[in-house]
Amino acid sequence: MNASPKKRKHQLFAVLVNPINRLSDVGAILSALIFSGMVLLILAEVILRNFMGSSTEVSGEYSGYALAAMIYLGMGFSFREDAHIRITFLRERLGAMSAFVLEAGCMVFAMVLSGLSCVFIFDLVLTSKARNLTAYTPAETPLYIPQAIVLVGMVLLTLQIFGRLTALIVGGLQQFKITHDAGKN
Question: What is the pLDDT of residue 78?
C-alpha cells in the first residue's frame, strides 16, 4: 500500500529535519565541552599566576576563541529551542493567516541572511588560510582555525532555520493556527 501524500510529506520532513536536529545537538555538546575547557584554561592561568609566578601566555587569546566557538556552535540548538530573543508583539496581534505569512517571511529572510553570512565567513576562512594569517599574539594562532569554527556554527544555524521553515511549510496554516492561537492565551 502506498502512504497518503500527507504521510509521505511528514516522512520527508522527518528525514530532512532529524539530521539537522542531531547536528545542532552535536554543536551544543561541543559548545559545552569548549566551555569546560575554557574554565579549566582560566583556572590554570589563575593558579599559575598566583602561586607559581608564571603564565600560560595564551589564556586570554584562547578564551576569546572559546567564547566565540561556544556562542556560534550553540546558536543552532538555541534557535531550535526558542532560546533566541524574539519580538512578537506584531505577530501576536495578527490573525493566523497573516501571522503565518509573517513567520514564513521572517524565516526566509533569516535563512538568506544566515546563508550569506556563511558565504562571507567561508571566504574569510579561505583568505586567511591562503595568506597564512596568524594572530598577533605569542601563540601566533592561524586565524582560519577559529574562523572555521564560527563558520560551522553559522552553517548549523542556517540549517536549523531551514528546518524551522520546513516545519512551518509542512505543518501548514492549520498546524500554525493551533500553535498561534495557543500562544495568544
Answer: 96
